[in-house]
Amino acid sequence: MNKFLKPFLVLLMPLFAVSITACAEQYTEGKQYTQVNETLSKKKEVREYFSVYCGHCLKFEPFMHKLKTSLSKDVSFERNHVDFLRQASPKIQQLITKAIVVAEQFENTDKLIGAIFNYVQIQKAVVTSAKDLRNIFVLNDADGAKFDKLMKSFTVNSKAKSLKKNQDTMSQKRALTGVPTIIVNGKYRINAQELDRKNFEQDYQNLVNYLLTLD
């Protein structure tokens, strides 16, 4: 450790401990959050279960972007699209899940995912095939050939299957009954309705950071 940094870190440690203690007093299991699993995920993560067919998820998008950028580098933000909403068949929703995984391979990820939201909820258009999704990507400056290749790739298909498995596991545990749902480290679900309405975004971020410290 850098000899110049060490004294400052030593001074900060008590402040960090006080901060965690304050959060422990502020947040209560069963109120602001619920334990939904016995074990933690292998790596620190904040997982958003959402759907492009969900109006609340669309409204939540700007805040999710802020939350993602507020996380430390050792915490991953995982977007887990679900297939159980009634607005489309599970097959089409699973196809959209794959397209979102593909979007994560492009630099303009948020723009592409936002375009799918816009297509479904603002334009009120209907996704019927991978071709519709390809057109959305191309109209938003994505390479169509790259989209085609990624949609068929082992990596994308494996990730999509993993997202489906996560969804089914949490659904079976009754931890996932609707969207948007945020689960931290695979163990703690945030109960957003119990957070401070007057300072919602900051309270939400504080709770996420607190849950990331729990065993």
Describe the structure.
The chain is of the alpha+beta class and 215 residues long. It has one domain (30-211): 3-Layer(aba) Sandwich (Glutaredoxin), CATH 3.40.30.10. Helix content is 53%, strand content 10%. The longest helix is centred in the first third of the chain and has 21 residues, at 6-26. It starts with 5 loop residues before the first helix and ends with a helix.
Which fold name fills CATH's third level, the topology?
Glutaredoxin
Structural class: alpha+beta
Number of beta-strand segments: 5
Level-2 CATH architecture? 3-Layer(aba) Sandwich
Mean pLDDT: 91
Largest sheet: 5 strands, mixed
**What is the fourth-level CATH superfamily?**
Glutaredoxin
- Largest sheet strand order: 1-5-4-2-3
Task: Please state the oligomeric state of the protein chains shown.
Answer: single chain
What string gives the helices and strands in order? HEEHEHHHHHEEH
The level 1 CATH classification is Alpha Beta
SSE layout and pairing:
Elements: H1 6-26, E1 33-35, E2 45-50, H2 55-70, E3 76-81, H3 90-103, H4 109-122, H5 130-139, H6 144-152, H7 154-172, E4 181-184, E5 188-190, H8 200-211
Parallel strand pairs: 2-3
Antiparallel strand pairs: 1-5, 2-4, 4-5
Helix pairs in contact: 2-4, 3-5, 3-7
Write a short abstract of this structure.
The protein has 215 residues and is of the alpha+beta class. The protein contains eight helices and five strands; from the N terminus they run αββαβαααααββα.
What brief labels describe this structure?
Glutaredoxin, 5-stranded mixed sheet, 8 helices, globular, disordered N terminus
